[in-house]
Amino acid sequence: MSTINLTIDNRKVTAEAGTTILEAARSAGIKIPTLCAWTERNHTPGACRVCMTEVEGQRSLIAACVFPVTEGMVVHTNTEKVRKARKMVVELLLANHPQECNFCVRNGSCELQKVAEFAGLKEVRFDYTQFPKEGMIDRSSPSIVRDSRKCIECHRCVTVCDEVQTVSVLTPANRGSKVKVVPAFDLPLVESNCIACGQCIMVCPVGALYEKDDVDLVWKALQDPKKHVIVQEAPAIRAA
Ligand code: SF4
Ligand code: SF4
Ligand code: FES
């Protein structure tokens, strides 16, 4: 395979032809933040635009996760233009997101939080979306909760359900700004073919998919003198 010579942040980098700017930067130890990309599975929908970079000769900013390197390319990952655009993208994502970090199941491990920190976000200048109280959280499954208010439409869950678990329960519905990830036919998860493997939870970058917490039920059972509580470890499959 032929090699490509390029410059990223004033450093000479060599990459294999066909690799993306993101991969070339990572191989050189240069950090470009990402959100929708799940590079281990080559899942790069180019949806979030968090990974934007400035490439000399290009009129607009370039998504590093999808753009292939070319010979002599000169890339800048941290110019004022890039920082401003990245901040704007993250602000818009957060403005359209419930303000529930304090008690979100992903608080502290949320990739959106990490990206906001990387972008140096101190405020959100836009009005926050007011979400309806009902209808956006699917608690129908005995084990998985889908909170579509928090979904950032990265579609990693669609890819893992389809390509890794080969169940294809989750699918994008609608187009443009109305796109949303749903179980097939927009059914409640419990009525779909979901096998509750949890793979989708593992890849979700935010708190839009999470395990149902039955700790309160366990406490209740433990405190019931008429019950004997038995613990059984589930024979977990690949999500473990
Ligand atoms: S739990 Fe498994 S089968 Fe169900 S939606 Fe998630 S990945 Fe698909
Ligand atoms: S539910 Fe999670 S993994 Fe699926 S599209 Fe939304 S944010 Fe991405
Ligand atoms: S990580 Fe590149 S567009 Fe989302």
How do you describe this structure in short?
This protein is of the alpha+beta class.
Record keyword descriptors for this entry:
single chain; 240 residues; alpha+beta; five-stranded mixed beta sheet; elongated; 16% strand; binds iron/sulfur cluster; Alpha-Beta Plaits; Ubiquitin-like (UB roll)
* Highest CATH level, the class of the largest domain: Alpha Beta
Q: Enter the CATH topology name of the largest domain.
A: Ubiquitin-like (UB roll)
Helical fraction: 10-25%
Which sequence of strands runs across the widest sheet? 2-1-5-3-4
Q: What ligands are attached or bound here?
A: iron/sulfur cluster, FE2/S2 (inorganic) cluster
CATH architecture of the largest domain: Roll
Order of helices and strands: EEHEEEHHEEHEEHEH
Alpha-beta classification? alpha+beta
Count of DSSP-assigned helices: 6
Using the CA coordinates, give the radius of gyration: 21 Å
Distance between the termini: 37 Å
Strand content: 15-25%
Total separate domains: 2
- How many extended strands? 10
Low-confidence stretches: none
Q: Major sheet, described briefly?
A: 5 strands, mixed
Look at the structure and give the mean pLDDT. 94
Shape summary? elongated
